[in-house]
Design goal:
The complex is a heterodimer. Chain A is 27% helix and 27% strand. Chain A is an alpha+beta fold. Chain A folds into 4 domains: 92 residues, OB fold (Dihydrolipoamide Acetyltransferase, E2P); 94 residues, BirA Bifunctional Protein, domain 2 (2-Layer Sandwich), CATH 3.30.930.10; 133 residues, 2-Layer Sandwich (Gyrase A, domain 2), CATH 3.30.1360; 76 residues, no CATH class. By secondary structure, chain B is mainly alpha-helical. The chains are: A alpha+beta, B mainly alpha.
Chain lengths: 514, 87
């Protein structure tokens, strides 16, 4: 018999009863029941219950051994009595009655238990990550990560992609985030940089005559962390294709995402052909270029309804070129006063002066609709009617207003939209709602330096090519530049590249390069 | 552009095919698949939020010999401005 194991801790079933087996693993849990010791023995594959009877010479060792020590147990597989069968365990029909027991290595006092899901400070977990990884949840996550990588490779390989390796020591790139630098020993004062992405290399592979590139590539950026951004390094499924249009690439990525989410999650994909939302529309409707479209509550522009309004906060904004945007929340009129106060407090915490709202009520289902709320008295009958019509609002609905500078109002009301979605439980966590954000502007105005900058990747193809660059206001030129977003999380930017040197020169000229 | 992107500048003079691509974040995809709100829950050995590895003690000081080989001299920020190191 193998010195450590004949089976894993997740393998034994009732048909194995009577077999002599050997298991090794960690002491997950230990119980003393009237002189009999029960050990839940755990390895990567599962947990098996081990029984040590008091007449065994190693009984005291079993008594002494601490949880998370590593032990090897030899014995026979015995069927559990019907009242002790544990249907929630894969091995719950049997137990291993120990005939030999040895301790492979002892465990000190644990800094935190790993056999239960309690919250511990993250720094403590990270200092002892090798213990934290023993927890079922972390173990499952890391396995899922491996499966995701494996399925990605399998799928893309089936689709004709080839995996390449690109350098880790490369040159500092002048665009983008802050680089991690590696000093050169041989060339004093010179530095390598870790790649922020293999962007140039994948394009050079295409120019090198290859056709479909992919790499699950490490990327390094010296930027601050967020909940969805790990500081320092991350991995991306880097892809590049030759002789394609934007549609070809969208189709390819949709197939990959649908496969990953179907095979590796329980989420329902809202639409397998992801909706395409132009950048400007996304900003106007959702106040974000990474909208969570698992729920509605889109913003509607109502600026034109208030150009003669008595309410100064609206009128002044309209007069000075600002906007009035409105979100309709169906059925929210019945919410208690606290709901509106909380929503306003949230808006203020995000920098708003207030959050105007109107509730639509009627005493009977067919009765006349009455508008209520602090601002109603300032609105004329015409304005009220036009508003109700524009918003397609009915009794029971509630309207939230944002007024001010277009960009700021969109961003702010966009945050209110997410807040309301969460507060009213409108976000269905079982969904995966993908979308493409398309038609990003090629250039943007840099207010600080009073100049035109590239808004994203300088190597993206401007829509309309050279002619657009020559004839249009640069700030109106759109790029074949897109983002893919899922549930409000930006998964990636991408682009059809500019492969023509004359267009490239003109684009760089516009952005102030020589 | 010639000086900032020499490789691409050169390469585009020698027959570049029309091409395009994308690079979806792998950690973020796993985060969505796992339904984890925090990206560090799907990374075996992440840095913490202050960009430190408390387990390995990174970043850390290196020996004077290593600095010398790399022709580097450290100019420390005034007291209290830098972050405390882990190692």
């Amino acid at each position: 018999m193998h010195p450590y194991r004949s089976h894993t801790c997740g393998a034994l079933r009732s048909q194995d009863v009577g077999k002599e087996v050997r298991l090794s693993g960690w002491v997950h849990r230990k119980r003393d029941h009237g002189g009999v010791i029960f050990i839940d023995l755990r390895d990567h594959y599962g947990i098996t219950q081990v029984v040590i009877n008091p007449d065994r010479e190693f009984f005291s060792e079993g008594e002494r051994v601490r949880v998370e020590s590593v032990v090897t147990v030899t014995g026979s597989v015995v069927a559990r009595t019907p009242d002790t069968v544990n249907p929630s365990m894969d091995t719950g029909e049997i137990e291993l009655v120990a005939e030999a027991f040895s301790i492979e290595s002892f465990c000190d006092q644990m800094p935190f238990p790993v056999n239960q899901d309690l919250e511990y400070p993250e720094d403590l977990r990270l200092r002892y990550r090798f213990l934290d990884l023993r927890r079922e949840q972390m173990h499952r996550n890391i396995l899922l990560r491996s499966k995701t990588a494996q399925l990605t490779r399998q799928h893309l390989t089936e689709r004709g992609f080839i995996e390449y390796h690109t350098p880790i020591l490369t040159s500092s790139s002048p665009e983008g985030a802050r680089d991690y630098l590696v000093p050169s020993r041989l060339y004093p004062g010179n530095f390598y940089a870790l790649p922020q992405a293999p962007q140039q290399f994948k394009q050079l592979l295409m120019i090198g005559g290859f056709d479909k590139y992919f790499q699950i590539s490490p990327c390094f950026r010296d930027e601050d962390s967020r909940a969805d951004r790990s500081p320092g390094e991350f991995y991306q499924i880097d892809m590049e294709m030759s002789f394609i249009k934007q549609d070809d690439l969208f189709h390819e990525l949709e197939m990959l995402m649908v496969r990953l989410f179907k095979e590796l999650s329980n989420k329902t994909i809202v639409a397998e052909t992801f909706p395409r939302i132009p950048y400007r529309e996304a900003m106007e409707k959702y106040g974000s270029d990474k909208p969570d479209i698992r729920f509605g509550l889109e913003m509607v522009e109502c600026t034109d309804l208030f150009d003669e309004c008595e309410l100064k906060v609206f009128r002044n904004q309209v007069d000075s070129g600002g906007v009035v945007k409105v979100i309709k929340v169906e059925g929210a009129a019945a919410q208690p006063r606290k709901f509106f106060d909380d929503a306003e407090a949230f808006a203020k915490s995000e920098g708003a002066k207030g959050l105007a709202w109107i509730a639509l009520r009627s005493d009977t289902p067919e009765g006349p609709v009455e508008l209520r709320g602090p601002i109603v008295k300032f609105l004329s009958e015409t304005e009220k009617q036009a508003l109700v019509q524009r918003m397609d609002a009915k009794a029971g609905d509630c309207l939230f207003f944002g007024a001010g500078n277009r960009t700021e109002t969109n961003a702010l009301l966009g945050k209110v939209r997410i807040y309301l979605g969460n507060a009213l439980n409108l976000i269905d966590k079982s969904l995966a709602a993908f979308c493409w954000i398309v038609d990003f502007p090629m250039f943007e105005w840099n207010e600080e330096e009073k100049k035109i900058d590239f808004s994203h990747n300088p190597f993206s193809m401007p829509q309309g090519g050279l002619e657009a660059l020559e004839t249009q206001d640069p700030l109106d030129v759109l790029a074949f530049q897109y983002d893919i977003v899922c549930n409000g999380i930006e998964l990636s930017s991408g682009a059809i590249r500019n492969h023509q040197i004359d267009i490239m020169l003109r684009a760089f000229q516009i952005a102030g390069y020589d | 552009m010639r000086s900032k992107f020499p490789a691409l500048w050169n390469a585009f003079h020698f027959g570049a095919p029309p091409h395009g691509g994308i690079a979806p974040g792998f950690d973020r995809i796993v985060m969505l698949l796992a339904d984890e709100p925090n990206i560090r829950e799907v990374i075996a050995f992440p840095l913490n939020q202050r960009a430190q590895d408390l387990m390995m003690g990174a970043p850390s000081k290196v020996s004077p010999k290593q600095l010398e080989e790399l022709h580097l001299q450290i100019k420390y920020p005034p007291q209290g401005e830098g972050k405390e190191s882990t190692g």
